[in-house]
């Protein structure tokens, strides 16, 4: 008997459960608990007896590697007993499938629909013609469904109507990801993504929303007006579109904690969104831009922070072309609460010079009193290609905010725990002292 076979069944079962995140999710005789059950008679007995091993149901369907029949799915579901299920069905959104493969998918969907009352999480990736496969699938009831991810390939609004029943029959739904791409290479091309088919009552229960599709600001504002319980909002493809200035001036989102936005090009969509939102509980603001064709909307952003009166803890700005004066005004508004600051660029735009570093440097005034420093609770700092300072200015600021320096001056200030600095090549020769200090700091910590 090998040493592992000396372990009690409870320990082996726990080890098997730990491997679920390490093995491929897709159902196969060569993966997951089916593979484990082929090792020995004892392992097979333990694997079949532990229903929690069969909670993750992953199905990948390709023209060349589709499941030959649905019986393996039926077996998997039977072994999961009454456990809640996390289901992922992945069909290439832009492929053409054979008639035989269609029949296999229909049979699989029939088996999954039979246990829809146990669905807890569902991720569907479907091509536009997938609507013909899902009539029975979407018409079920999903009383325990909490998370729904739809990854669609060029679904029109008419196609998307097929999805509406699943949203109407999921009263416990909290997380929704809607991804609809018009073609395999055109994520940021505006088109009617079908998001308007989502009924208003559905938005009212959601806490997490990710709209991974090109969405105009006017459509977004209409959606946000329904999302009174929203906690996290992710917008990877926001664009301005035809902005309706008649929209009411404020959308109050009392529970929203995190906003993450990406724009291919900085346009009026960001300004319009900021002008409408009020988020008193906001803690994290992350914004990334691909191309700059206008200035950073400083006034709308300042007004948004002032109107929200939030205690912002994390500010992440990537490729925004924000200048030093604008950044300092943002930091002053969030100085007391900010814990994480990350600013990235790679186009020669610098927004951190001696002036800002001096405001971040801790010390004492000529009368021996602690000076008023910017962001006293800052714990994590990342600056990539945005620093242009005299040699040693950055090192002085960082050194003053180490735990040792703060303790020596007896100040109520948080020490920096994480520092990530990248100098642009044109400034490396001028900042050898700063670079030497950063290397020394990395070696010590």
TrEMBL record:
It comes from Agrocybe pediades. It comes from the Eukaryota. It holds the Pfam family F-box-like. InterPro entries: F-box-like_dom_sf, F-box_dom, LRR_dom_sf. Coiled coil: none annotated. This is F-box domain-containing protein. Gene3D superfamilies: 1.20.1280.50, Ribonuclease Inhibitor. The lineage of its organism: Eukaryota, Fungi, Dikarya, Basidiomycota, Agaricomycotina. Residues 4-55 form the F-box domain. PANTHER family: F-BOX AND LEUCINE-RICH REPEAT PROTEIN 6 (PTHR38926:SF5), F-BOX DOMAIN CONTAINING PROTEIN, EXPRESSED (PTHR38926).
């Amino acid at each position: 008997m090998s040493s592992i076979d000396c372990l009690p069944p409870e320990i082996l079962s726990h080890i098997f459960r730990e491997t679920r995140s390490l093995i491929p999710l897709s159902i196969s005789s060569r993966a997951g608990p089916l593979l484990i059950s082929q090792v020995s008679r004892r392992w097979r007995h333990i694997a079949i007896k532990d229903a929690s091993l069969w909670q993750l149901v992953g199905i990948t369907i390709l023209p060349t590697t589709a499941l030959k029949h649905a019986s393996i799915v039926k077996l998997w579901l039977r072994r999961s007993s009454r456990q809640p299920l996390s289901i992922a069905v992945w069909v290439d959104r832009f492929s053409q499938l054979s008639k035989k493969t269609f029949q296999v998918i229909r049979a699989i969907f029939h088996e999954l629909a039979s246990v829809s009352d146990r669905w807890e999480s569902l991720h569907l990736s479907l091509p536009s013609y997938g609507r013909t496969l899902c009539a029975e699938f979407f018409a079920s009831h999903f009383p325990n469904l909490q998370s729904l991810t739809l990854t669609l390939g060029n679904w029109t609004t008419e196609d998307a109507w097929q999805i509406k029943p699943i949203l109407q029959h999921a009263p416990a739904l909290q997380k929704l990801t809607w991804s609809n791409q018009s073609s395999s290479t055109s994520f940021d091309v505006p088109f009617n993504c079908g998001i308007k088919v989502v009924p208003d009552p559905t938005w009212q229960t959601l806490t997490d929303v990710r709209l991974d599709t090109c969405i105009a600001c006017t459509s977004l504002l209409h959606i946000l007006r329904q999302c009174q319980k929203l906690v996290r909002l992710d917008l990877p493809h926001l664009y301005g579109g035809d902005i309706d200035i008649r929209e009411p001036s404020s959308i109050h989102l009392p529970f929203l904690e995190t906003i993450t936005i990406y724009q291919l090009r900085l346009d009026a969509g960001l300004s319009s969104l900021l002008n409408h939102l009020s988020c008193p509980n906001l803690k994290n603001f992350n914004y990334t831009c691909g191309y700059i064709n206008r200035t950073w909307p400083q006034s709308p952003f300042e007004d948004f922070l002032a109107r929200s009166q939030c205690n912002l803890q994390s500010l992440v700005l990537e490729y925004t072309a924000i200048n030093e004066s604008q950044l300092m005004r943002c930091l002053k508004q969030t100085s007391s609460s900010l814990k994480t600051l990350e600013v990235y660029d790679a186009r020669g735009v610098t927004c951190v010079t001696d002036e800002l570093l001096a405001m971040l440097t801790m010390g004492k005034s000529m009368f021996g009193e602690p000076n008023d420093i910017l962001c006293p609770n800052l714990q994590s700092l990342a600056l990539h290609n945005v620093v242009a300072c005299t040699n040693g200015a950055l090192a002085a600021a960082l050194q003053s905010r180490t735990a040792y320096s703060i303790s020596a001056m007896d100040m109520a200030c948080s020490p920096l725990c994480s520092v990530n600095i990248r100098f642009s090549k044109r400034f490396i020769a001028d900042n050898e002292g700063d670079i030497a200090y950063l290397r020394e700091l990395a070696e010590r910590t």
